[in-house]
Amino acid sequence: MSRVKKLVRQEIQDLSAYPVPNSEGMTKLDAMENPYTWPAVAKEAWAEMLKTLPINRYPDPQAQHVKNELREVMGVGDDFDILLGNGSDELIQLLAMALAKPGATILAPEPGFVMYKMIATFCGMNYVGVPLTADFELDESAMLAAIKEHQPELIFLAQPNNPTGNLWSQQSIDKIIELASGVVVIDEAYTAFTDADYLDLLEKHEHVLIMRTLSKVGLAGLRLGLLVGRSEWLNELEKIRLPYNINILTQASALFALEHYDMLLVQTEQIRVDRLLLMRDLDSVKGLEVFPSEANFVLVRTPANMARNWFEELKQKNILIKCLDGGHELLKDCLRITVGTTDQNDQLVSALAEISLSGSVH
Ligand SMILES: *Cc1c(COP(=O)(O)O)cnc(C)c1O
User: Fold this and answer.
1) Tens-place pLDDT, residues 282-324
2) Distance CA 289, CA 331 (A)
3) Phi, psi (rounded to 5 degrees) for 87
4) Where in the chain is the domain with CATH 3.40.640.10?
5) Is the CB of 87 under 6 A from ligand 1?
6) Centre of ligand 1 from the C-alpha of residue 358, in Å
7) pLDDT confidence of 359, banded at 50, 70, 90?
8) For residue range 208-244, what is the model confidence (pLDDT) as tens digits?
9) Which of 91, 115, 212, 245 to mutate to test the pocket of ligand 1 (most atoms within 8 A of CB)?
10) Nearest atom in ligand 1 to 224's CA
């Protein structure tokens, strides 16, 4: 038996690494990135500022300036603390590490964000996925029953949810929070694309934390996520955060971007407008079912057994989206499309229209 097989935990050997497809030269509508870059003047000012950084020095371990600016931009009250992560993925990992007593459980609705389950496995925690209803609403009674049965240490609720794009009923969320004896994290990765805002849950409940990220608003390359909550929670997580997890280039660039947040808001507003147009246009593609979205992506369902086929045909046309068929059974025949620029969206819709027609001819 090889030493690797003998030594590496079986559940790690059983995993496959998070797949990232090669997207070189493609119209990239697969990963919820903001398709826009910055105006030339902003890019120049940013590059000028980067020049001045003392790259030979460790960064500010608290990233205090970034936190102050985030507090301002996101409207975080003084009663709450902020913890920064190398993407919100790292924050999920910190939470799991802190709560991973033997037998501890993470619970989340499914289909949902895949990292909740992966990180549960990394940290040796149990994972319980509770299926959504067929129209992707929370199955309130199933959620409440699963919480009673498993008493999860950690519950993740993504609002809006990825990959379904919708918000769940506030009443169901409230009941889950009431019943939970562990921590409930509201993952607001897509907060820029919805009017819904869950920050006020922090006032009402001592066991709720709010997670956000700069990835989806146009800074995916930076890797900066934030957890907002009461200091009694964040102080514990702070102890296991690796020092200097937010590097000097990220800190300085995030600060710059946050000081120019209007520039990003113009872009996210445009994406919100284009989302409506995209949904309308997708709706006119023969055989395609379009689900409502509060995020910067749209979930669609193809005619039976066509999703993989349509995905591959789009790839042939140099358009990369995400095929969800073959994952969770509720996502049968589903594709996820990130809202791109107006041109990219048009390109995608024409390609899909063509594919849907050629498919029906046999
Ligand atoms: C994209 C995403 C994240 C993670 O974002 P980071 O890039 O790691 O900050 C977290 N939660 C959900 C639901 C997401 O879709």
Assistant:
1) 999 999 999 999 999 999 999 999 999 999 999 999 999 999 9
2) 12
3) 80, 160
4) 53-259
5) yes
6) 36
7) low
8) 999 999 999 999 999 999 999 999 999 999 999 999 9
9) 115
10) 9
Query: Hey, what CATH topology would domain 16-38+262-358 get?
Result: Aspartate Aminotransferase, domain 1 (3.90.1150)
| CA 13–ligand 1 middle distance (angstroms) | 24
User: Quick one: tokens of 71?
Assistant: 């507090």
- Residue ranges matching CATH 3.90.1150.10 in the chain: 16-38+262-358
Q: Which two tokens stand for residue 117?
A: 């389950």
State both tokens at 346.
Answer: 């048009």
Residue 21 banded pLDDT, cuts 50, 70, 90: confident
The closest of 137, 135, 133, 134 to 168, measured between CA atoms, is 137
* Helix (H/G/I), strand (E/B), else coil: 63: coil
Q: According to the CATH classification, is domain 53-259 in 3.40.640.10? A: yes
Record the tokens describing residue 49, joined without a space: 């500022």
